[in-house]
Amino acid sequence: MSDSFAPPAALRTLQMDSLLGALTDAPRWAIYSIAAAVALTAILLYRYPYRERTLHYRNLPGPASSNFLFGDFPKVQSHPTGRVMQAWFNEYGPTVRAKLLLGDNLIVTADTTAMGFIMQHADHFIKPPAQTRMITRLLGHGLLNVNFDTHRRQRRVLNPAFHPDAIREMVPHMFTKAYELRDKLMEACADPDYADPETAAPRPEDVVAGARKVNMNKYLINTTFDVIGLAGFDYDFGCLREGNHIVTTFRNAMSELQRLTLFGVLQQMIPALDIIPSKRNKLADLARMGTSGVGRECIARKRREMESLHKDDLSKGTFVGKDLLSLMLKANMAKDLLPRDRLDDTEMAYQVSTFILAGSETTSNSLTWTLYRLAMHLDVQQRLREELDTLPTDEPSPEQLNTLPYLENVIHESLRLDPPVPESMRMCTEDVMLPLHTPVKGRDGTMIDSVPMKKGDMIITGYMQVNHNKDIWGPDADRFNPDRFDRPGIPARKAPGTWGNITSFNGGNRNCIGYRFALAEIKAILFVLLRHFQFEMLPSSPTITAKNFIIMLPWVVGEENVGSQMPLMVRPLEQ
User: Fold this and answer.
1) What does the entry list as the binding residues for heme (predicted)?
2) What is the pLDDT of residue 318?
């Protein structure tokens, strides 16, 4: 039977001749690259049994992988974010062994003591080289992907820009763009022919009087890009008005980097393959050049302004602009900073690229999931709206917003349940013993309360799983319930992290430097939106799922070809 599917001998000969001809005509570098990839794969296959026998944490429990090439990644990516890892933890305990690419092993943990140890020893646990190369290609050598003394030097210059007093001065920019977003949504709702070209057309049941189907993910991304432009660099991207080609290129690069392909994986693992032209590298290069170009332009303009005002001295007390970049430049030019600790213009420009990603993508993501949760729980949305209406102003100060306990609870619960970055991968830089809070049962039946790690070992920390831990947050930890923070004894024990006993902003000296900025922006935008609109689920009830592509993105099941989206019914409220 199988012979009937085999090609004739002549055809097989023709196929081989065609393959040889293609290789002969291929550029020399392509042939060398393919040969190197084949040789590397052969070596890995040969070494695989040896690595399994000598693995120092081989006693850790964990799932059996059925995919040598991609390891457990396909299974993890084919399910909603966090579901596969949580299933592992339910079966084996909060620390397991899993498979990475090409048969490599790694540790996966949601153990609070282990995660706290990693956060407090950041120099011992850095981003893996493959991940660093990818981020560097997109953002340059900014704060997000440098390590050791370089990270400390950059952080020292950037810290003053994120002081609470500095962020207070940026809040008016957040309200400016929040009201611009309100106006755009009002226009969409008033247009009977409104249809978002980037999402599927509304189903008949989603055509509702007084409301419109709107992809809130897109609108919020445009808003947060504009906010980081104004508050960050005194630069208006204008995304809400007419779009911006730099931002479009950046978004396209992010989308391409999020695709899991064989060649993309090989390019990440084998630096020599970067010489091969690819769509992902081209888009990442264009995005970096665009955003860092904006950075250089803004730096030059700001420096001219500052030097014209303060020719003789630029001390810590000197007034400059109120945006992040002005404050960074001020800190970088201060006389008490040693020359070796200053950032050059290229490093400063790369911070602009970094803040565009860290200050727009993650915040828009948090807002998107918050509106989704509020659309699912209209009673919570109405209660929050009533609290917001108690403030007698259209632009409350940060101090006024901070007096609203239910707003705080809703944001806290949304960030707990839907962390923008649900997990993190790190590489060990020296031999350490990783302590565990919860021992796990080894493959030989013994209990393991610490894991030996050697230089080069990989580990994934599950932020989402810690945030959903029922021992910390109660038996309903998987449910959206802002009232949980008013319960006595919640949280039941301490979890690692910078804010709110959750891991959503990381912790230690690699914590999110802009978490106060993000919280202020989320509060300002929610304040404006919820006082003017009601957000509802679509009557057609599409299934919304979460996929982790660096950031936890919303997708509609059955509409994956459209890309990431969060369609909600937006209904203007009577004023």
Assistant:
1) 512
2) 56
**Type of residue numbered 396:** P
Contacts 24+ apart (CB under 8 A), 147-150: 147/122, 147/123, 148/123
Report which of 403, 367, 404 is spatially closest to residue 385, judged by C-alpha positions. 404
d(CA 468, CA 85): 12
Helix (H) or strand (E) holding 562: none
Please list, residue by residue across 46-81, b when 16 or more beta carbons sit within 10 angstroms of its beta carbon and e when fewer do: eeeeeeeeeeebebbbbbebeeeebbbbebbeebbb
Residue 428 marked as a ligand binder: no
For the residues of 456-507, what is the DSSP string, one character each?
A: T-EEEEEHHHHHT-HHHH-TTTTS--GGGGGSTT-SSS---SSBTTBSTT--
Enter the pTM of the model: 0.90
DSSP 44-65: HHHHHHHHHHH-TTTTS--PPP
Q: How many helices (H) and strands (E) does the chain have?
A: 22, 12
Task: List the Cα angle 140/145/148 in 5-degree steps.
Answer: 120
**Rounded Cα–Cα distance for residues 519 and 418 (Å):** 15
Q: Which of 573, 570, 454 is nearest to 217 (CA)?
A: 570
